[in-house]
Structures are given as C-alpha cells and as structure tokens.
Design brief:
Blueprint: E1 3-9, H1 16-26, H2 32-41, H3 60-64, E2 72-78, E3 81-87, H4 95-102, E4 107-113, H5 120-131, E5 136-142, H6 151-165, E6 172-177, H7 201-207, E7 220-227, E8 239-246, E9 248-250, E10 254-258, E11 262-271, E12 274-276, E13 278-280, E14 284-289, E15 300-303, E16 309-320, E17 331-336, E18 339-352, E19 359-361, E20 371-384, E21 395-399, E22 406-415
Parallel strand pairs: 1-3, 1-4, 4-5, 5-6
Antiparallel strand pairs: 2-3, 7-8, 7-15, 8-14, 9-13, 10-11, 10-15, 11-12, 11-14, 16-20, 16-22, 17-18, 17-21, 18-19, 18-20, 21-22
C-alpha cells in the first residue's frame, strides 16, 4: 500500500481545519477517546453536531502563547492508501513553515472560500506550490453551502484561478466544490451539486496516480556510509550505503562517482541484507563496485550515461528560515542530502514578492520568510540536477557555520558555467 503525502493551504477561516477534521472523522481515523473529548468541547453546538476543526486546532493555543510550531503531521489510512497530512500555518509570517511542510509532498490542497473567491493568500499559496514543484494540486472551493451550491459561483472561481495559473507551473490541476462543515463532496458525492461530475475529495486522494511522479530515468545515489567490517568473515567487504534518490541501478551498470569523476562498474547490490539484481527509488541499498576507489560520505554515484550537473557555481531560490544577515559575501554550510560543503553568496539577484509575483531587483534588505534568488559559490563541486527536473537532488539547506541553525531552504535553478579558465563547468 503506497503513501500519499499532501499539504492543505488556505486563508484564515477558509475551513482548512474543518476539512482535515472531516477527512479524519469520515474515514474512521479518530479514536473513541478523542471523539468523546471533541463531543464534550462541542456541547454548545446544535444537538448532534461536532466541531471537527478541534481535531487539528490543538496547536492553536501553543501558537497564541508564542511557542514555535513548525509543521504538524496527521496520519490516517483507508483500505486503498495511507496518508500523511502536513498541516502548516498559512499566514504570511509562516511562509517558511509552508515551504517546510510542502517540500516533500505529492499533492497540495488549496482551499478557497466560495464567498470570497481568489484572494492574496490564494496567490501566495499557489506561488509556493508552483515554486516547490508539487506534482498534483487540487483546488477545493469550500463553503459551497453558503452560496447555495451555486454552479455559477464555482465556475467563476475556477475561471479566476485558471487566469492565475498562467503565471505558474502546475503539472496536474483539478477543482472540487465542497462543504467541509456539511461533508459535501469530501468523502461522498453531494446531492446538492448534481452538476459536478467528478469524484469526492477522498476518492480523488485515494486514486491520484503518484507512482509516475518518481524520477526513474536519472539514477542518483548519494553515499551516506561506507561499510568496512574488516572481520574474518568479511575481510574484503566494502559497501556504499545510502538511498536511491531517483532512477534504477542494476548489477553491471557503468557508473561515475562525483565530485572526483571516478569510474567503475556495479558488481553487487544489497537491499535489506539480500543480494538483488537491481535497486530503484526510494529504496535504501548498499552498492559494491569493481574498483577500490576513494569514496566517502556525500559522494554521488550516478550511471555514466546519465550525468548530472557538476559545478561549484549555482543559481538557486532560497526561502529564508532564520533572522540571519543575507548579503553578498555571507558564508554558510550547504547541506545537499548527505553532502556538506562550505559556500558563499556571490550576489542576490532579486527578491520575489509572493503575492504580486513581482521580482524586486537587487533588494536593499532580506528578511525572515523572504524568497530570494541567489548565486552561490561552493568550496567543492556539487553533483546535482535542477529542482524542477529532480526534487530530490535539486534541494538543499543552508546552515549557519557557528550556531548550526538552518537559515534557508534552497531549490537549485541552474549550474553556472564559469569562464574558459575556470576549474568547473556544468556537465549536464
């Protein structure tokens, strides 16, 4: 049974908490003791009603007390699929939280209040979903019960969002009219929207195809640990352990190890301590090579006919996650999966206004939650793909050298080829 990871995005009072609560409640994913507590807290509602938003709003009091809440995760399952919901706050001051929650998701649910239509926060959430390359986006137009389940209202909002889409990049986009409070089109189709012929939200989540979202054409494997038991039984054992980030590896494949560019052939692959003929994303595996090479943590093993970009100069979009000084010359540690290298900001090209989509050239200041495009120079070459091509190998974080605090999340846009006298050039 596969797992669908998704995030819900919505403006204040759009009904995000109620929608998640409805999914949890109607899929029978709430324990009896929690249901009893919710019923007690809902005693002031009309008889028989429950405030389903209470299933996810337990963090609200912590936020009001000033306690930092990054991302909360909810888990539930149906007979057809398992689900992980990333529940991140949606206010502009929590942009970094949404980026964190959405970075590894397969799908985004963008909520729109049917009474208000597309608003500024809709534009912001849509921009972030597009920027992060989330493969599937479903726009739930909520509170349809408050507009008399109007087909015209629904189609007007769809038309407005499709205009917005022209400025964005969505691979897969769908629209569902819902009432989270009443349960219309959440788990079952509603009798009040006979004009809507699509599936209810839960069925959509159960059936959306995600297997094809994995990049199986570009084999990427980054070494996390070199296994050298040096025991009597395994005297010559040398295995390179890590996770297949993308693609498929087979015994006999010719491979290249970066950043050094060393070449060899795969002689054996182990998965779960069992020798196999192939390994594919996202399996954890141990690779064995024909040659005794100098390979260490953070090195990348790729198939020789599918090379990544390898360079010290990259362009990237950063989401600032800490109140740290960002300017040309600022130095950080760059964590690219298990690789850790020093880097410096060469320059800041622009700051992105995520509500107007305007690019502010050479900004005077950069603050927490800002999105900026930068050029970085790393101390050692990195092997990577652009984020839009491969989310696993195109993402990284920046870490403060002294405090160890994560200060930014990054998405690589391109490798920069340096001049003819430079030491590194893009190789993809």
């Amino acid at each position: 049974m596969d797992i669908l990871r998704f995030i819900t995005c919505g403006s204040v009072d759009d009904g995000k908490s109620t929608l998640i609560g409805r999914l949890l409640f109607d899929s029978s994913s709430v324990s009896s003791d929690i249901l009893a507590a919710i019923e007690r807290q809902s005693r002031n509602l009309p008889e028989g009603e429950m405030d389903l938003s209470l299933l996810t709003d337990g963090l609200r009091s912590e936020r009001e007390q000033g306690i930092t809440i990054d991302v909360a995760y909810k888990y539930f399952s149906t007979p057809r699929r398992k689900f992980i919901i990333a529940d991140a706050p949606g206010h502009v001051q929590y942009t970094r939280n949404m980026v964190t929650g959405a970075s590894n998701t397969d799908l985004a649910i963008i909520l729109i209040d049917a009474r208000n239509g597309v608003v500024e926060q809709t534009r912001r959430h849509s921009m972030i979903a597009s920027l992060l390359g989330i493969p599937h986006v479903v726009v739930c137009i909520n509170k349809m019960d408050l507009v008399n389940y109007s087909k015209q209202v629904f189609h007007d909002i769809v038309a407005d969002f499709l205009e917005l889409r022209k400025e964005l990049h969505f691979k897969d986009l769908d629209f569902i009219p819902v009432s989270a409070l009443a349960g219309d089109n959440v788990v079952r189709n509603s009798v009040y929207t006979p004009w809507y012929e699509g599936p209810p939200l839960l069925e959509y989540l159960e059936t959306v195809a995600i297997a094809s979202d994995r990049n199986l054409s570009d084999p990427r494997f980054q070494v996390q640990y070199v296994i050298r038991p040096k025991s009597d039984d395994l005297h010559d054992y040398r295995g390179y352990a890590g996770q297949v980030q993308s693609g498929i590896y087979r015994v006999g494949d010719a491979v290249t190890v970066f950043p050094a560019g060393l070449q060899s052939v795969i002689t054996k692959i182990e998965v779960n301590r069992t020798e196999v003929s192939e390994a594919f994303a996202p399996q954890a595996a141990v690779m064995h090579l024909a040659d005794d090479l100098d390979i260490s943590r953070g090195n990348t093993i790729v198939r020789s006919d599918k090379l990544p970009q390898v360079t010290q100069d990259i362009e990237a979009i950063l989401c600032i996650t800490d109140a740290t000084d960002f300017r040309a010359g600022s130095k950080f540690l760059l964590q690219h999966n298990s690789a850790l290298v020093k880097c410096a900001i060469r320059d800041i090209a622009y700051k992105l206004d995520i509500e107007t989509y305007e690019r502010i050239q050479q900004p005077e200041s950069v603050r927490l939650n800002d999105l900026i495009k930068v050029r970085l120079r790393t101390a050692e070459p990195l092997a990577f793909d652009t984020y839009r091509h491969n989310r696993r190998t195109g993402a990284f974080i920046l870490v403060h050298e002294n405090t160890g605090q994560t200060v930014a999340g990054g998405m690589i846009q391109e490798g920069i080829e340096v001049g003819m006298n430079g030491a590194n050039r893009g190789m993809g």
